[in-house]
Automatic annotation (TrEMBL):
GO molecular function (one): oxidoreductase activity
The species this protein was found in: Neocucurbitaria cava
Tyrosinase copper-binding domain location: 140-157, 344-355
Family annotation (Gene3D superfamilies): Di-copper center containing domain from catechol oxidase
Signal sequence residues: 1-18
Swiss-Prot/TrEMBL keywords: Metal-binding, Oxidoreductase, Signal
InterPro entries registered for this protein in UniProt: Di-copper_centre_dom_sf, Tyrosinase/Hemocyanin, Tyrosinase_Cu-bd
Origin superkingdom: Eukaryota
Record keyword Methyltransferase present: no
Protein known as: Tyrosinase copper-binding domain-containing protein
Pfam families, per the entry: Tyrosinase (PF00264)
Length: 421
């Protein structure tokens, strides 16, 4: 059994190393590595990225590490049953349609969060937005930041499958592949099999978006061609019900609950359209291959953690970091809102790539990095208690059960069994 697993893992590597991602007929099979039918570099924009080479090495390392160092986990999760997350551009048309209809289904199911905990929640998707808003101060610039968002994205993937008939694994959006022109990516090109594209021209009284805030910007992001509602593609009628809390877009109506001491801050009912202002400026400056390579070359978790989130003196030296840059690649409302950003379904494509980037960094040296943790339990507060692997995490009403930070340090342990191609 173990020998067979290692064999499978070993031949997985050359494909990933070449940046050659198989186009699969069906994504649902856990045994799909052997269904490779077509390899097309052109389908990926003709580019081979250094960061994808790193990811290929990481994927092989992880299998070997798990097989040799974690035999008990390996029995439960190995190449014979592991789920494989792929880039959206490698999905077939039917795979894309299956995913898109599952996301839309989430917006049609009733919410599980009680009205008392989220007065504005109107659907199952809102449960995920609400739990992110409620926990914003304890899941960003904290030690659990990467672990919590790994679990959040996985729980969303499970819910698409369990409640909305999705058959595949969660896609990711590989920033550096499309950094020169995100509107060319199959995620954002506005086609019938995209997550819709740019918003129409809008919010024209605004010339820039300020990072971290409009009032005291450290970085000024120029207004792009969008800023208004998405008017075409599968998500043109996508409902945004919650927030804003902290948006960069000045044209968004305020939420009925603006009291920062309220447990329901931003959770009043505020129905509106989904807006985007897709920014080639942001993506090409801070999410290109060189930027991600530099991040992946971080020697320790402290460096990695800071650089991912804008550096030690946040956003100084005109440095945004891939986390914020990935959000501001779509921007607008709710995409630019630190609290409400999951309200744009693009969020989960971005955070799957954040997770892939962390997974890559971890598995370039799995024995030292799998359990490496840095940060405290309170947002950007170095004086608060340090986060620990034994800390409990919750997703509120979005997904049942609690896990620990330690449970989410590997994609092949705890509740997880997935890898990236
Ligand atoms: Cu978040």
């Amino acid at each position: 059994m173990r020998a067979a697993g290692l064999f499978t893992a070993a031949w997985l590597a050359p494909a990933a190393l070449a940046g050659a991602i198989p186009a699969l007929e069906e994504p649902s099979s856990a045994h799909s590595f052997d269904k490779r039918q077509d390899i097309s570099i052109n389908a990926l924009g003709g580019k081979i990225l250094q960061t994808d080479v790193y990811a290929g090495i990481a994927g092989l390392n992880q299998q070997i590490y798990q097989a040799t160092q974690k035999p008990d986990q390996w029995k439960k999760c190995n190449p014979l049953n592991i789920s494989v997350r792929r880039e959206w551009s490698t999905f077939s048309t039917s795979e894309k349609n299956n995913y898109i209809s599952a996301v839309k289904c989430m917006s049609k199911l009733p919410p599980k969060t009680p009205k008392s905990d989220c007065p504005g929640c109107r659907n199952r998707y809102d449960d995920f937005v609400a739990t992110h808003i409620k926990q914003t101060f304890s899941i960003h610039n904290t030690g659990n930041f990467l672990a919590w968002h790994r679990w959040f994205t996985w729980a969303y993937e499970q819910t698409l499958r369990n409640e909305c008939g999705y058959k595949g694994q969660h896609p990711y959006y590989n920033w550096p592949r499309w950094a020169d022109d995100p509107l060319k990516s199959p995620v954002l090109d506005g086609s019938a099999t995209s997550m819709s594209g740019n918003g129409v021209s809008g919010c024209t009284n605004q010339t820039f978006y300020g990072i971290p805030t409009n009032d005291s910007p450290t970085i000024k992001v120029p207004h792009g061609a969008g800023g208004g509602c998405i008017a075409s593609g599968p998500f043109k009628d996508w409902p945004v019900n919650l927030g804003p809390v902290f948006t960069d877009l000045t044209c968004t109506p305020a939420n009925p609950i603006t009291d920062f001491t309220s447990p329901n801050l931003g959770l009043g009912y505020n129905p509106r359209c989904l807006k985007r202002d897709i920014s080639q400026y942001v993506s090409s400056t801070w999410t290109n291959d060189d930027q991600v390579v530099k991040l992946l070359n971080s020697a320790d978790i402290k460096t990695f953690w800071y650089d991912m989130q804008g550096g030690q003196n946040a956003f100084s030296n005109n440095f945004m970091g891939v986390h914020t840059a990935g959000h501001f690649t779509v921007g607008a409302d709710p995409g630019s809102d630190f609290f409400t950003s999951p309200g744009d379904p693009y969020f989960f494509f971005h955070h799957a790539q954040i997770d892939r980037t962390w997974w890559t960094w971890q598995n370039l040296n799995p024995s030292d990095r799998t359990n490496a943790i840095y940060g405290t339990i309170v947002i950007a507060d170095p004086t608060a208690p340090a986060s620990k692997l034994t800390d409990t995490m919750t997703l509120g009403y979005a997904y049942p059960g609690n896990i620990t930070v330690g449970d989410a340090m590997t994609t092949m342990g705890g509740p997880f069994c997935y890898t990236y191609l």
